[in-house]
Write the structure tokens for this entry.
Amino acid sequence: MSRVCAGAFSLSLDGFGAGPDQSLENPLGVNGMVLHEWAFKTRTFRTMFGQEGGETGVDDQFAARSFENVGAWILGRNMFGPVRGPWPDEHWKGWWGANPPYHVPVFVLTHYARAPIVMEGGTTFHFITDGIESALRQAQAAAGGKDIRVGGGVSTVQQFLRAGQIDEMHLAVAPVFLGAGENLFAGLDLRALGYVCAERISTANTIHLIAKKQR
Amino acid sequence: MSRVCAGAFSLSLDGFGAGPDQSLENPLGVNGMVLHEWAFKTRTFRTMFGQEGGETGVDDQFAARSFENVGAWILGRNMFGPVRGPWPDEHWKGWWGANPPYHVPVFVLTHYARAPIVMEGGTTFHFITDGIESALRQAQAAAGGKDIRVGGGVSTVQQFLRAGQIDEMHLAVAPVFLGAGENLFAGLDLRALGYVCAERISTANTIHLIAKKQR
């Protein structure tokens, strides 16, 4: 059965999933890149970005697992780009170049309509202006029975968690304090929402946690 | 040189150091006891509370380390008891019975003056009404060159962190989501305050983190 998952979602020890002040220069917010260092060391992520080598241990297994059986993605507007407000033109097509690392339909939550963008390699960006439930329905229709991956950012993951729509969430906790930015746990009662930590593996670079919703 | 430390301070994965609604029945707040399960399994804590046995591995080493070289403690009013507002009488003498597990002077932060209480086993509770800096000065004077341990709760540890007064903090992160209660990281920018994660060890029951202030 198709599941809804968040995977390889990086956090700091103090719960921040991104630094403050996202911009073209700081796609992950100020100091946010440090959260993802574990991922950039893995073979899975290096291959995805056209680089050689990379680690092949537990971190890589979790990275690879996050991409398995994904039939569609859902992203928040800020994960798609730094542009705020109405789209000034058709110029911005994501952070990832001509061939983004999705290779399936991607549904971008936004308040501003825009025509779909067909990219190389199987990725098409669809812009959804009527909320997360609509995005989920369209993603499920497009996924062909595979899983839906909610990519981020923090606000988008929080919305899906609050709606009880995420079945499984893989958090990767970097051994750093970020101190500021977007905090995944702020105002979120994961216990009341039915989530438990079902799996926990610590590596040299991060702490992997699998949160599952109890049904 | 005498240091100021917080030790064996238990948190949930989502940063809560205590559950909500502390009371006589729930000294650690609703569901808060689960944070401390790792500690209650150790030989150090079991011995402290007059019980036999207990685990002797890494968790126990961290538990024991948190009590080493402590010359004085500082506690918040709520860690001392569930009584709020002015002391109605002299009846409440802490959660720990006639012989509390401190065995050194303990300075309790409160807005309401009260005479010191001499307990069995070397513990004396002193009540400090003029703030954390005063408590720290008096604790240092009493500690005879040994370390000061800031025991908790969350609000007290936050106050000392914000004042830059904690040199080292040992957090023990239980593999649970608590969802509500007192969150150590709420409104606290540990990075800006100079704290880094200097040590991290994961065990079956908890994740030990040592945060140190960069000087």
In short: The helical segments of chain B are 37-40, 43-48, 58-67, 77-80, 132-142, 154-162.
